[in-house]
Amino acid sequence: MALLTLLFFPDARLQTVAKPVPTVDERVRRLVADMLETMYEAKGIGLAATQVDVHERVIVIDVSEQRDEAVVLINPQVVWTSSTTHLNEEGCLSVPGIYDGVERFDALTVSALDAMGQSRVVQAEGLLAVCIQHEMDHLLGKVFVEYLSPLKRNRIKKKMLKAQREEAR
Ligand code: K1U
Ligand code: ZN
Questions:
Q1: pLDDT per residue as tens digits for the range 62-112
Q2: What is the pLDDT of residue 1?
Q3: For the chain, where are the E strands, in sequence order?
Q4: Annotated catalytic, 135?
Q5: How far is Cα 35 from Cα 38, in angstroms, rounded to an integer?
Q6: DSSP letter (8 states) at residue 56
Q7: Which partner from 48, 104, 132, 160 sits 20 to 30 angstroms from 83, CA to CA?
Q8: Which of 90, 135, 146, 167 is catalytic?
Q9: 0.90 cut: is pTM over it?
Q10: What residues have CB less than 8 Å from 118, skipping those under 6 apart?
Q11: How far away, in angstroms, is 144 Cα from ligand 2 center?
Q12: Given 3-state DSSP classes, what are the helix, strand and coil percentages for the chain, each rounded to the nearest 5?
């Protein structure tokens, strides 16, 4: 297994639309294992392949307390969303230190392949539902700050670029 390098906002590669995985083979299983290691190391509850500069429809999530209930979603498709939404506080490993509210469906159902290439249906609510929506946005090239006002987004962009410049010094 290996730790993968995260992309940070406003890196333009985060806007890439991911392609479907053609076959769930050893290459994809290695990517999943590396993404899980990277997510756990970064203390995240989710990670989309887009964030590690791989533009294929792969997501890993673990919202459990014990960090032992990994969910792998390959080629996820939303099949149902609740009629109600809720404002949730979100963070993002690609926008470290920034937290803000985003309106999300309270519950949803997704169909996807797991790491063995088996079809599965996931019915999600609570933090898992929020996280799935956040990660599926990444696969569409969308970072959660795009839901915020242009004023907030520009402030975040400046803050990130300043932090990245200082890091590079
Ligand atoms: O995709 C990512 O960048 C991972 C992100 C997932 C996420 C967190 C919160 C709401 C929606 C999606 C993170 O894991 S950010 C770090 C984190 O662990 C966290 C932040 C806020 C609330 C809960 C967890
Ligand atoms: Zn994110």
A1: 999 999 999 999 999 999 999 999 999 999 999 999 999 999 999 999 999
A2: 85
A3: 46-48, 58-61, 71-81, 85-90, 100-105, 107-113, 119-125
A4: yes
A5: 5
A6: B
A7: 48
A8: 135
A9: yes
A10: none
A11: 7
A12: 35, 25, 35
